[in-house]
Write a structure and sequence with these properties.
Blueprint lengths: L1 E5 L2 E5 L1 H4 L4 E6 L23 H15 L6 E2 L9 E3 L12 E4 L5 E6 L3 E7 L4 E7 L1 H5 L2 H13 L7 E4 L9 E2 L1 H11 L5 E3 L6 E3 L1 H11 L7 E3 L24 E7 L1
Parallel strand pairs: 4-7, 5-6, 10-14
Antiparallel strand pairs: 1-2, 2-3, 3-15, 6-9, 7-15, 8-9, 8-10, 11-13, 12-13
């Protein structure tokens, strides 16, 4: 990933997506905002007991840094589910939605995270983009695969043309899961490089990065068109919010993409 800092606000860009001047995109950090205390920095979430005026101002700072007007940004109300929304207007509202797709230039579709995996997809042939929120539930349910299927059905996307970015999220070194989730992971992925059992424990480490990569490959996206940030939100408190590290009392990062 490429680091960019504008007016003390730092965000990241995927190198593979940067190859296309027909899109703009970002994945944020906590650096550069005005939120305070445990939310200090660029909190972009309205559901974490921050002052809404702070969030509005932080979004405006992000808009200025990325050259994407705040009025052109659209985020769904995420519920860690598998519902997918097709965006036709910036005025569209998406309750209970964890993935957005659009083929309309000038609309920035985004998702918010604090350990979960943000996935961006771009089809440069059919000119379609998607932003996916893939936590453990979305990963197990293969929400990115469902998103790609919708892109194919609605817009004629051929998965082999997709450029994909897997953004900053909790790393396989620290993401512990218990027996119930282990069984669900095994049902979806087997034990193919996504689980590492912890000795003297009934827990395991779940590799969300590898699992989401496998979902993309299974969906037909070529491996050499997938970029993984390999940046851990849990282990870098100076850069990222983390729900697991901060026991739920934390801010929200944002990842978005827009066709110009």
């Amino acid at each position: 990933m490429i680091t960019k800092t504008v007016n003390n606000l730092t965000y990241f860009l995927f190198e593979n997506l940067l190859s296309y001047n027909s899109i703009n995109h970002f994945t944020s950090t906590r650096l550069g905002g005005i939120s305070t205390d445990h939310l200090s920095g660029l909190n972009l979430g309205y559901t974490v007991n921050d002052n809404p005026e702070n969030v509005n101002y932080n979004l405006e700072l992000l808009a200025n840094a990325t050259s994407i007007p705040q009025t052109d940004m659209i985020f769904p109300k995420q519920t860690n589910g598998i519902h997918i929304g097709i965006v036709k207007s910036v005025n569209d509202i998406f309750p209970d939605t964890d993935s957005l797709i659009t083929n309309i230039p000038g609309i920035c579709i985004g998702i918010r995270t604090a350990d979960c995996v943000p996935v961006l997809l771009y089809d440069p042939v059919q000119k379609v983009i998607a932003a996916v929120h893939s936590g453990w539930k979305g990963t197990v349910e293969k929400i990115s695969k469902s998103t790609i299927k919708r892109m194919t059905e609605e817009f004629g996307t051929d998965p082999k043309n997709l450029i994909a970015g897997i953004g900053p999220s909790i790393s396989p070194d620290v993401y512990e899961i218990g027996t119930d989730v282990i069984e669900l992971v095994k049902n979806s992925f087997g034990e193919n490089h996504v689980l590492k059992y912890i000795e003297t424990s009934n827990k395991a480490l779940f590799n969300l990065w590898e699992a989401n990569k496998q979902v993309l490959i299974e969906s037909g996206v070529p491996l050499n068109q997938i970029e993984i940030a390999e940046m851990c939100t849990y282990s870098q408190p100076e850069l990222f919010y983390s729900a697991r590290r901060d026991k739920g009392k934390t801010g929200r990062l944002a990842t978005g993409i827009m066709m110009i």
